[in-house]
Amino acid sequence: LIAAETNSLLCRDDSIEGLRFYPNLF
Predict the structure, then answer these.
(1) How far apart are CA 18 and CA 24, in angstroms?
(2) What are the angstrom distances between the C-alpha of 19 and each of 3, 5, 6, 24?
(3) Cβ contacts of residue 20 below 8 Å, gap of 6+?
(4) Whole-angstrom Cα Rg for the chain
(5) What is the pLDDT of residue 17?
(6) pTM for the full model?
(7) Cβ atoms of residues 9 and 18 within 8 Å
(8) Nearest-5° angle of CA 13, CA 6, CA 9?
(9) CB neighbours (10 Å) of residue 8?
(10) DSSP the chain
(11) Residue 7, CB half-sphere, CA atoms under 13 Å: how many?
(12) Nearest to 22 by CA among 4, 12, 9, 1
């Protein structure tokens, strides 16, 4: 679920939010 949500968020918002979510999860 997490992976799917992350992919959706990154695909949907590939901007500040996407970059913010990436480091946050890792």
Answers:
(1) 10
(2) 15, 14, 11, 9
(3) none
(4) 8
(5) 58
(6) 0.19
(7) yes
(8) 20
(9) 10
(10) -HHHHHHHHHHH--SHHHHHHHHHH-
(11) 4
(12) 9
3-state secondary structure of 15: coil
Token duo for residue 8: 């959706």
Condensed to tens digits (0 to 9), the pLDDT of residues 1-26 reads 566 566 655 555 555 555 565 555 54
Please enumerate in sequence order all residues whose Cβ is within 8 A of that of 6, keeping only pairs 6 or more positions apart, or say none: 21, 22, 25
Look up residue 19 and give its two tokens.
């970059």
